[in-house]
């Protein structure tokens, strides 16, 4: 992709810094052989992975555990026509290790929805890309 005056490609560190600033994103995955997108709250973990907290019996967990997924978060201003978008691509796995689950229960995300039999899902940040739109002005 070409960089121009309105679009700037973000490096990995910039992308991770921006991800840490927002509470909501979208998981992009496959459900019954079709693309699906689900908004979720999340946290960026110390290893730069995206962590979700959701119900162990949710359709989301059933669809993404062990699969490669994308996770996207952004922030935009319609008034200034500016903002950024970051995409993390990687394998999603339910966190099974008891010590890691305990650590995440203290520092990880809290679901904004009621959760029954909650589990943490980690999306590894194998590929992190992003871009910033610096805005345009209209005349007239």
How would you describe this protein?
This protein is 17% helix and 46% strand. With 140 residues, it is α+β, with helices and mostly antiparallel strands. Strands 1, 2, 3, 4, 5, 6, 7, 8 and 9 form a 9-stranded antiparallel beta sheet that branches. The model has no long low-confidence stretch (mean pLDDT 91).
Give me the secondary-structure category.
alpha+beta
How much helical structure, as a percent, in the residues? 10-25%
Query: Biggest sheet, in brief?
Result: 9 strands, antiparallel
N-to-C SSE string, H for helix and E for strand: EHEEEEHEEHEE
Q: What overall geometry do the principal axes of the alpha carbons give?
A: globular
In round numbers, the mean pLDDT is 91
As a percent range, the share of strand residues is over 45%
Based on CA atoms alone, the radius of gyration comes out at: 16 Å
- Which stretches are poorly predicted, pLDDT < 50 over at least 5 residues? none
Q: How many strands in all?
A: 9
Question: How many helices in DSSP terms?
Answer: 3
Termini gap: 30 Å
Compose a concise summary of this entry:
The chain has about 140 residues and is α+β, with helices and mostly antiparallel strands. It has helices at about 10-20, 60-65, 100-105, and strands at about 5-10, 25-30, 35-40, 45, 50-55, 70-75, 80-95, 120-125, 125-135. The model has no long low-confidence stretch (mean pLDDT about 90).
How are the secondary structure elements laid out?
Blueprint: E1 7-10, H1 12-19, E2 24-31, E3 34-41, E4 43-44, E5 50-55, H2 59-64, E6 68-77, E7 82-94, H3 98-107, E8 118-123, E9 127-133
Antiparallel strand pairs: 1-9, 2-3, 2-6, 4-5, 5-8, 6-7, 7-8, 7-9
């Amino acid at each position: 992709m070409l960089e121009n005056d309105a679009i700037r490609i973000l490096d990995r560190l910039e992308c991770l810094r921006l991800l840490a600033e927002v509470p909501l994103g979208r998981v992009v995955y496959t459900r019954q052989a079709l693309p699906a997108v689900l908004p979720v709250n999340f946290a960026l973990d110390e290893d730069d992975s995206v962590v979700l907290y959701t119900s162990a019996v949710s359709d989301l967990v059933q669809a993404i555990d062990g699969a490669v997924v994308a996770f996207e978060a952004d922030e935009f201003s319609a008034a200034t026509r500016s903002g950024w978008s970051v995409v993390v691509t990687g394998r999603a796995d339910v966190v099974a290790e008891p010590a890691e689950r305990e650590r995440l229960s203290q520092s990880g995300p809290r679901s904004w929805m009621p959760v029954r039999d909650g589990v943490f899902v980690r999306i590894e940040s194998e590929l992190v890309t992003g871009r910033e739109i610096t805005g345009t002005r209209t005349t007239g």
